[in-house]
Write a structure and sequence with these properties.
Length: 416
C-alpha cells in the first residue's frame, strides 16, 4: 500500500463519528448527503461493512415523504451555521430541510457489487430507501413531469456559489428573519468561501421554506429560486440506471419498470438541453423561463448518464479541453477567463476531486478514455502534491478550503 493510500484511509478513519463520516473536522461537523455516498464508494474498496454503515446512517435521516436531507445532525456541534434551530424541521433525528445530489444509488450498486451474497438484505433495505427518494424527486421536484428535476436552493446542487446561480439568486432578497452568524470564515479564509450577500440569500430561502413548514407543494409555489438542473438530473439518471439494475437483480419487475420510465423521461429531457453552439448542456431557470448559459462544469455532467453520438461527445470534449488548457489542475468548475471565474472561490473556478470522478466516469462511458486519463492523472497528482484538500486552485494547484477532507480521500482511493 502506498503512503497516499494509507493517508486516505487514515483520513476516513479520523473523520468517523460512529458509522458515518464528517466531510472534515469543525468546518462540517455533521453527515452530508452526497459526501457520504462518495465516502461509501471509497470504503467499498476495502471495508464493505463500513460502506453499508455509511449509507445506513444517512438513510436514518430520510423523511416520511422520501426526501433524504442534505445534512443529518446526528450529534450537536456549534462549529457550523446554519444548525438545526435555523432549519426548524420535524424529523426524529434533526436534519436540514433540503436535499443534495442523489449519488446514493450509484454508491449502493458499487457497495453491493463489492459485498458477498450474505449482504442481500442490507442492500434491499437501502434499495427501498433509494426508490422512495427517487419517487420523491420526480413527484416533488418535477410535478409537471418534464424529466428535469428542480432545485429550490443552491445548496441542493452541492455547487453552492456557482456562477450558474448568479442570475436566479439576484432575484432572491437579502433580507432574513434569522440572523446570519457565519462560522465557516472562522475555519477557512473568507476569499475561499461564498460572499456575505450569498449567505443572506441562502438564509432567506431557508426562512421562506421553514415558513412553508417544509411542505413540498407549498415550497414549489412560493420558491423564489427554482432551477431545472442538469447536473442533478444527470446524477439522478445515472443513479436511476443503477437502481433499475438492482431492482432487476432482486426480481422486482414492477419497480424496475417504474424506474425505467423515470430514466427514459430524464434521458430525453437532458438530451433536449444540449446546445450545439455552446458544445454543452444547459439548465433552465424556471422563474424566468430562460436557459442558464453560465459556463460551469455542470454542462458536461450529462456524459455520466448518456451514451452520446460520437460527434456530440467529441464536441463536448473539445470544449472541455479548451477550458483546461494550460491549467495546473483540471477540471475548472467555471470556464477560465470569464468575469465570473475566481480560481480560489469555492465553486466559481476551483477543481474538485469528486466532480472529476463523475466527469471521468462520463468520459469513459462515452469512449473518451484519453481525456479521462488526463483528468485522472491531474487529480491524483494534485492530491499527491498538496494533500487531501477540499478542492484545488486550478492555476497554482494549491490545496484550498478544508484539509483532511473525506471525499477527496475517497476520490483518491477510487481513482488510484
Ligand atoms: C452547505 C460538505 C458540503 C458539500 C457541498 C459544499 C459545502 C455546505 C457549506 O460542503 O456545502 O451544504 O456550508 O458550504 O458546497 O457540496 O456537500 O462537504
Amino acid at each position: 500500500m502506498t503512503d497516499h493510500i494509507q493517508e486516505a484511509r487514515r483520513i476516513l478513519a479520523v473523520n468517523d463519528r460512529g458509522g458515518y463520516t464528517v466531510p472534515t473536522d469543525r468546518l462540517y461537523p455533521f453527515q452530508w448527503n452526497w459526501d457520504s455516498a462518495f465516502v461509501a464508494m471509497g470504503f467499498a474498496l476495502y471495508d464493505v461493512d463500513r460502506a453499508y454503515r455509511e449509507l445506513e446512517r444517512l438513510a436514518e435521516g430520510q423523511w416520511a415523504d422520501g426526501m433524504i436531507p442534505h445534512i443529518v445532525f446526528h450529534q450537536p456541534s456549534d462549529t457550523y451555521f446554519p444548525g438545526p434551530s435555523v432549519w426548524r424541521t420535524k424529523h426524529g433525528i434533526p436534519t436540514s430541510g433540503i436535499t443534495q445530489p442523489p449519488v446514493f444509488a450509484i454508491a449502493l450498486r458499487q457497495v453491493h457489487d463489492a459485498a458477498d451474497e450474505g449482504a442481500r438484505e442490507r442492500t434491499l433495505a437501502l434499495y427501498l430507501a433509494a426508490l422512495k427518494w427517487h419517487r420523491w424527486w420526480y413527484a416533488a421536484r418535477d410535478p409537471e413531469g418534464t424529466g428535469l428535476v428542480a432545485l429550490l436552493h443552491p445548496w441542493e446542487s452541492g455547487s453552492d456559489n456557482s456562477p450558474a446561480w448568479d442570475a436566479a439568486m439576484a432575484r432572491v432578497p437579502t433580507t432574513t428573519t434569522t440572523p446570519v452568524v457565519r462560522k465557516d470564515i472562522g475555519h477557512v479564509h473568507a476569499d475561499m468561501r461564498p460572499r456575505d450577500e450569498d449567505y443572506r440569500r441562502f438564509i432567506h430561502l431557508v426562512d421562506t421554506y421553514a415558513d412553508c413548514d417544509w411542505n413540498p407543494a407549498e415550497q414549489w409555489v412560493r420558491a423564489p429560486f427554482k432551477v431545472a438542473e442538469i447536473q442533478t438530473t444527470a446524477i439522478l439518471l445515472k443513479a436511476g440506471e443503477d437502481l433499475e439494475h438492482l431492482a432487476r437483480l432482486f426480481g422486482r419487475t414492477e419497480e424496475a419498470e417504474e424506474i425505467a420510465a423515470f430514466n427514459a423521461l430524464s434521458r430525453k429531457a437532458i438530451l433536449g438541453q444540449w446546445r450545439p453552439a455552446l458544445s454543452r448542456f444547459v439548465s433552465r431557470d424556471l422563474v424566468s423561463g430562460a436557459d442558464i448559459e453560465a459556463a460551469t462544469q455542470a454542462g458536461f455532467l450529462p456524459l455520466l448518464a448518456l451514451d452520446l453520438e460520437a460527434a456530440m461527445a467529441s464536441a463536448a470534449v473539445a470544449e472541455m479541453r479548451r477550458w483546461s488548457a494550460g491549467l495546473k489542475v483540471a477540471f475548472p468548475t467555471t470556464k477560465p477567463g470569464l468575469a465570473a471565474y475566481e480560481p480560489k472561490r469555492y465553486w466559481r473556478g476551483p477543481a474538485w476531486g469528486i466532480i472529476n470522478w463523475l466527469l471521468i466516469e462520463g468520459l469513459r462511458r462515452n469512449g473518451e478514455g484519453a481525456f479521462a486519463e488526463e483528468l485522472r492523472g491531474s487529480t491524483l497528482s494534485a492530491i499527491e502534491r498538496e494533500g487531501f484538500a477540499e478542492y484545488f486552485d486550478p492555476e497554482t494547484g494549491e490545496g484550498c478550503g478544508g484539509l483532511g477532507f473525506s471525499w477527496t480521500a475517497a476520490a483518491y482511493l477510487w481513482l488510484k
